[in-house]
Structures are given as structure tokens and as C-alpha cells.
Amino acid sequence: MGIKYIGMDVHQATIVIAILNETGKCVMETIIETKTSTIVDFICGLRGMLYVTLEEGTFAAWLHDVLSPHVEKVVVCDPRKNKLRPSGHKSDKVDARKLAEWLRNGQLSSVYQGRQSLRTLKELARSYRCLVEDSTRVMNRLKALFRGRGIACSGAAVYQARQREQWLQQLTQPGARRRADWLYQQLDQLQPLRKAAHQALLAESRRQGAQPILCQIPGLGPTRAALIQAIVETPHRFRSKRQFWTYVGLAVVTHSSADYRMVEGQVRRSNKPVATRGLNRNHNRVLKEVFKSATTGAIQRDPVFKLLYFRLTERGTAPEMARLTLTRKLAALTLALWKKGARYDPEQLKAQAA
Q1: Is residue 78 classed as helix, strand or coil in its secondary structure?
Q2: Which residues, given as ranges, of the chain have pLDDT below 70?
Q3: 148 lies in the same domain as 38
Q4: Are 152 and 245 in the same domain?
Q5: Distance of alpha carbon 7 from alpha carbon 14, whole angstroms
Q6: Which of 127, 288, 289, 292 could form a disulfide with 249 if both were Cys (CB 3.0 to 4.6 A apart)?
Q7: What distance in Å separates the CA atoms of residue 322 and residue 101, rounded to the nearest whole number?
Q8: What is the domain range of residue 92?
């Protein structure tokens, strides 16, 4: 029966499938409906060891759960990396066959799909973040409405329910006043939902064993700890702190060329310095914001991080570079304590600051 490599080009209504054998020959091309029963019936009708791949997208998590019990391995790959490969002609069948070929050749980078036990926490985290973004957007639109008419509105007073009538009276144009009133009503609907989502997120995160470990780390309160758990899920995804830095967006990108030269007929490594190109751009933006804000809070409130920041700036390090250094330290500390299940010991950081 042998091994079969299955590439799936997934769409809302249909899935285009290409199947290759061990030698790379295409043994089947077909189109099936994007439906659980149809997919399971098709996979169960195939023989041999089945390796399946599809691109990360809206259907990826669902298809991963549907396919995993019936095949040897499911690889959800990164479509952004696939676009960098030579393509040529483009069609659904061509895409499915290329996915199968790349799977057979071991050229795909898999995307972590997480664990079933943390799906509730992930969905609650998504809901909370969306409600925060929606309420922030409405608040920004309100302030823009007043600023656009020369009305100063700094601070949070413009959002207070008791003062709204006074703010509305400053808008002399009926259309602008009505628009502001609708924005206030929209904000009134979003704020209770945001609060409820926040409470649900914290309640679910308390059921996870990592919550006490993360909350003891400076700058990581219950909300940030819950978001880290929902996004990372398990620290054992990352072999080292450098991999975690890349995921968070704290890895330094370097470029080099002509790394070797000939000296007296022998190959020697060049002493030319490696050029840096800033931090990596392909990262989890929510997680980066969590660690950046946590570092800012730790520098302001935690005496050890405050001392570390002072030592760095005293040596001539620019403030933004000092914050980046401490953000990397905080991320590495979080990963290490989470992996070991250990408690935070400020004395170890004090020794580094001395």
C-alpha cells in the first residue's frame, strides 16, 4: 500500500485534492465538498500511510481536528513561506499538487495548531481582544469628532455618562451631534460586553496550572498572563529563548555576505562585522505588545527591573535599547520559569544588576 502524500487546496465550498505516491507520481486528483462527513468518508476510503497538508487559514484548525484521527500526520503549513517558492502557473489543482510535492520533499514549515484543552481559553482571549479593539475604535472616533471641530477633549472626561449632555451641546451641527450620540450608544453596548469577556477570560485562565507561575513575574498581571497562556499554550513549543524571541518579535535580524576569503591558499572566515537590520517582522503582534507593556510596568514598579534599567542607561545604553534588552530578559524569564514550574527569585536578577 505504501505512503501517500495528500495536498489539499481548501475553499469555502470545495476542497481540491492531489495525491502523490512514494515516487512522486500523481495517482489521484479530485474535488470534494467542504463538509465533515464527505472529508472523513474520502480519507477512510484511501489505503496506506496518509500524510496530509493544507495551508493555514480559516478552516485550518477545524480540518486539523477532523483529519488527525484518520491519518498518520497532518501538516498545516505557512502560506506566506509558500509564496516565496517558484510557482509558475496558478490554479487550484496546481496548488494542491505543489503542496503534496513539498510535503513529500520535506520542504514545508508547519504551523502549531494547539491543544483541544485550551480551545476555550483561546476563544475567550480572541473575544476579549476584539471587544477591546472595538471599544477603542469607537472612543477614538468620538475624540476625532470633537477635535475635528476645534473642541479640546483630552483625558477620559468625554466618555463619562454624566457629562455627555454637556459635550453634545458643544456640537452645533445636527448631523455631528446625532453621530456622536450614536457613538455614545455604541460605546454603552460595548463596555459591558468587554467587562464580561474580561471576567470570563480570567476565570478560565485560573483553571490552568500556569497562571500562578506567570502572575508572579514582574509586569505580568492576571490579564497579561491569561493572554500569554492563550497564545503560547505550552512553553515546550520552543527549544530555547532565541526561538521564543523570534515568535514574540524580539529577535535581531542580521545580514552578511562574503563570509569567507582565501589566505595563502586556505579558506579563512572574514572578520567583516555582521550588519543588523532591526527586529524580525514576522511575529505574533499581540504577544509582543503584551511583553512590551509588561516591561514598561516592571520598570516603573518593580525595584529589580528599575535597577536593571538604571544600570543599562548609566552605561550609556539608549533608553529604547535598554527597554528592548529588559523585554528580552522578561520573555526569557517567563519561558524558563514556565518550563520548570519554578518560582520567581528576584535575588538572581539583583546579582546581574550588581
Answers
A1: coil
A2: 1, 83-88, 352-354
A3: no
A4: no
A5: 14
A6: 288
A7: 46
A8: 3-104
